UniProtKB/TrEMBL annotation:
Residues 1-20, 1122-1151 are annotated as: Disordered. One of its GO terms (biological process) is auxin polar transport. This is C-terminal of Roc (COR) domain-containing protein. Residues 1130-1139 have a biased composition (Low complexity). It comes from Physcomitrium patens. SMART domains: LRR_RI. InterPro entries: Leu-rich_rpt (IPR001611), LRR_dom_sf (IPR032675), P-loop_NTPase (IPR027417).
Amino acid sequence: MCTPPACGTSMGLSPTTSDGYVLPPPAPTTLSLPPKAQSALAMYNPMPLIEKESGPKPQKYSEVDIDGLLRALKNPPEKIVDLYIHYCPRIKSDSDNCSVSLTLADDKFVRRLLYRFAGPDRSEYTDHQICSRVITALVSSPAVSSVTLEIDYVQSDVIVAELCTALQKNRTLQRLSVYSDNRFQQPLNSECVKHIAEMFLVNTGIRELQLGLVDITLQVADNLALALRRNRFLRGLTLYARIDADALAVLTKPFSGSEPNQTLQKLEIKGFKCLGARGDGQIGNKGAENIANVLCRNSSLEEIALKNCEIDYVGVQALALALMSNKNLKVLDLSYNPVDVEGLKEIVKTITMDPATKEQPNTTFREIIIRHSFISRAGAPILANMLATNNTLVRLDLQFSVRSWQIKDVLALLHSLKRNQSLRFLDLRGCDGVAGEKVLATILDLLVTNPWLEQLGVEGTPLSRKGHDAVIKAQLRRNAEKFMEVFKGMGTVTPTAARVFLCGIPFAGKTTFRKTMVYSNIKRTSSSVRLKTSAACKEAISNSKIFKAGRKESQTVGIEVQVIVEDNVQISIWDLAGHEEFHAFHDLVVPNLSSQGSACTFVLLCDMSVPQGKGGKYELKDEKVVDHELRYWLRFIASNTRQSVHMLPNVTVIFTHSDKFPKTDLIAHFKPQVEKLRVQFSKVINITEFHVADARSRKSIEPVQKAMQKRIVSILDRVPKVFDACSQLQTKLNEWKNQHPDKPLIKWSDFSLLCSKVPALKRLQGQDSKVAEERQKAVARAMHDAGELLFFDGLDFMVVDPNWFCHEIMGRILSLDSTLLVLKHPLIDEHGFTKREHLKKVLEASFCKNKNPLFKGRKVRGVIPEDLVQLMVKLNLCFEQNPGDKTSGIYIPASLSNPSEAAARGERPLSWANGYDQVSDDELLHVGWRLKCENPELTTLTLGFFPRLQVFLQKKFSGVQDARYTIEKNFISFVFSGLEFLIEYNGPEECQVDILVRSSKDTVETWATVEENVLKPTREFCASPTEGCQGVVLIEEIMRPQCVRELWVRKKRTKDQCIGVEDLKLKVMASGKLDYEYIWKKSMAESHGLKANSAEVLLGPAHWEDVLSRFLDTLEKIDSEVSRRRSPDSTGTHSSPLSPLTPPPSRRVGRTVSLLPRPSEMASQLLESRIADRSVEINALQKKLFPSLSRNIDSVIDLPFLLQDGKVPHLVYLSTGGDSVNSERLVTKLTPGSYSRKFHLMCEHRDGIHMIEHQVGGIMRCDEKSVRSVRPHMLWGLKLISMLLRISELAAGGFPTMLTEAERMRLMGIVADDDDNDERPDVTGRLSFTPEEMMAAEDWLIHYMKGKNIPALFGLHKVCYLDNGLPSKHVAWICDKHMHFCLNHGLVDVL
Ligand SMILES: Nc1nc2c(ncn2[C@@H]2O[C@H](COP(=O)(O)OP(=O)(O)OP(=O)(O)O)[C@@H](O)[C@H]2O)c(=O)[nH]1
Ligand SMILES: [Mg+2]
């Protein structure tokens, strides 16, 4: 035992070692870590952690024969990751009993070679022989460093003995894992552990040992202890085991004594109960104390994981005490233990700065992992307080431990992270408080100001269920890209450059406004800066030289970019073409405002006039038209902007052509309209002001300009600072541009060269080249945000002349009008196809139009068509006909010609690409999805989105043979992995992406393939910063299978033919039954018949598993509430620190959790078996809970004393009354008034409480006093009803018919609560009333029942239960039916 005094003496760290941790500087002006944290973090390398958590690489797998496998073992084509031997001949499934697989990996792929034991003359003997051959091969192969053996516990010892003998001399194997196949739930044969332990007496190579399902008896512990004492090479030991405190004491003996083990770095114990073993297999608090004791002495252990060990506050306290002095431990994992707030407090104390001494007791501890425990809301301030000052903790993992936290708690935690610079991983999976727009916006803002946070687990939270996780992930990815090294020591300054985006429909006056602005700028500055000649001046204001033929007026093509400097602020004006054909490109240059907090503002212009008749007279534009115009662009801006609290995009509205209405008060006219929009869009856009002006007049736009100027200055002050180095580099870049007026692109190598001339960007001697490159990239990104250049990561060049690219190049390419002056031939055909030669012509044409004054007709150099293609491929603007072939043509989906007439009407004929001739249609699976914009009022998938998605998906499937990827306007069709896809887009008003799939694969595989390859990528693509629409949340809906089977045209697939995934899940849970059928509304063409599909089929396996888990969660919650015993003295003592609502943490660890990360081809089986397991569990719980609730009502509600005694019946509910039973509604809210309600009572029978049908009931007047007195009864009743509903449909009896679906969901507490202002009381939590309220309620009921004929009015009879034929104290009021039954069986006496 660790004696507290021993720990106590070493607890007070000497000041020299504690390093005097100080607060990080209040507002970091440079993005560097405080020096102390830097040195501390430098010692700790989080990289492996990133790998641990990063998603799996794409897998490929192939089956091979045994000789092929052995050859591969000898000469592995790639690095061997693991050799996996699965040997379980007793299992009777052919596909899954014996196999050997070799996992290989290079940078890109994980590849698996699989050999299955098969063949006609297979026998135990040959199986064994093959195993022996593999063992021989692996031992002689120097490439195998990791082996996993999964075996049947019966045969285990023979194979293991063989392996161990072979390994005695081996030095190359580093990781050995031996598991018993956990489908048997049996521990490994103890002989087998003995062999392994003995092998460790001589083996010197193995660093890591994992044993799965071991029954650690004292004898086994002794064997392992001997190995630990002798072996000095083992670094990590993982035991999934039944082990108790005594066995642990034996096992940890080698860590004390004269020559203690000081080499083991990681010890993981996961408690498991195995069949046949005695006891629960948990080390408990005693074991934790033992480990704490080890930690006091040991100096090698860095990671301790004690999962499912039944450790509570007491054990945690001992561990925390040890941590006060220990200086080596980095990771403490206490998942699946009943650790509560008190325990958390203890651990947190070790790394919280003492406000008095400003010191942190422990500075080496890095990770806290507490999954699947119960940490109440009180944990939030404790953690927030710690995170605000701590600068050592790297990971905080609270998966499924903080489910009960509310929005407020999460916000507190997030706020505390604003200044924290050490935390990289925060996991709040399953937390109910991660919900609502405020939390989302706060997270997104935080990720901008805190670039250190790399991972944030939000799965299983309301936010992620709503699909918001994609945009969080996109930002996290950006954060993770950055090295913290990169920014060390780089100074930052307030930026001095901003961008202004001019938008509005064609002829709104954008270009006119821009020119007037530029002109007045030149006028103002030219007197001082004498450089500008009048010729240059003219040049500047007539920037555009591309006109559309056949038009009188000039129309902007693409985007024109011009730069002015006002009061030392450089403003680049981006004049976006109003014409729709160019919109596809716009959102690639519009910043996702909050993503980097770049300085920019939007000006939205609108021509206020419409010609009236032919006489050249004008009238004011109709309000509706104005609204429509403005709304389009506001939605465009909002869709490109992530949610944010502090960094909403600013929009200034200008109504032009004011000169046409000299006598009208225009401001007053437009004010209400702008105000209305301002309010509507206030969550996503900040409409700052509006003006009326004559865009042609300098004088008229002067106030606008002034206001804009002011706005820009204030924005520049607010946005994150930029690197000092940017402005220096800018000077260098300008010099370069002057020297190379003919080069619109700069090679990355040249850019690097320029960077090396700037001290802060120079690569220092000995510095990692990657760091230098990352810095240069960061600066390039910042300059991109300032509008100086266009930088896209992954290209070896940048565009230094944005106007050239946006206007000259993209403007021409996207111009559908083939009569462009510069080209005689149509550039792009109706399939969106063009040849590379054509692009070359575009490039050439752009050269001669270059308007650089210094550029006098020379040929522009440095751009080859290939660069252009690369750039466009990168931006998802085009894809190559034959990827990699530099001569093939390219497709530019954005310039696909308009859809056919039928398609435009929504009647595009659909047909499958493949055609399974041999297979009948019935054997194929037909599934459909719809991704749609959550809030089409404020956001939309912009015009460029679907064309880019067409490119994005093409790239994804371009390597796939026979993918037959074809596109049309708003349409994609392709084949992948046995699935045929039809994707049709319906936008921009509806913003729906319909995905129709026909599959020859089974359900699990079909769903997984679609999710992995289309749904998830599409959502992620939408959430990605540049190419996507970050403001849009895509909701996933399920399409009625019939639509897919019969290939209904788009028009027929109305919104009634789809149902939201989350909506359907809620419906299932609200229904309380697993065989819930969803009934489709009839489509236009259908005449008769109800069409329903089972929810399980519609949702697909993965979603169904989620439904079951959530269902199970609810039931478990009820279970723990019901089985809680009320005893007044059990509160507040440490002997039972478990909160009464703590769910048993161990229940999910058992069978449903796989010990091993199974190979992917087994994933479907696992999913299916989990689903089966859960359904069984749910059924069992439902059956148990109904009677157990009925028997334990007093543990759920605190009834007044007299009522407990059964003086009067007391299970009250109120109804509205009504002519027929069907019109009767349950009352869930009661306000005083001059009306009455019907008063009902439930049958109290202990086998199942229920409502009594056709009960006459009483009348209750709703005067003030009665309402007040009856309120507790009503709420108690509602609480019981809520629980009955949550248990099952059966338990709920007749109540569902008295409730609408919405009321029912609210009562059950299963609607996602975004707003807290629901005045209805929440009956799912604990109800509490004051003693006065209780008394009043009790009096009222007794008084009310007085003199009433209870049997006649309520159909209830007072009975006394019999115990073995003798009357007991238990009295109840039960219904006729129950009474007769009970009397017949001699169970009750009537009183
Ligand atoms: N009388 C009057 N005419 C204006 C005003 N603003 C613009 N115009 C005229 O409207 C026409 C179109 O203006 P532009 O500035 O080219 O329109 P735009 O918004 O750039 O249009 P696109 O580039 O096609 O999107 C031009 O002939 C302008 O002279 C204004 O305030 N008053
Ligand atoms: Mg224009």
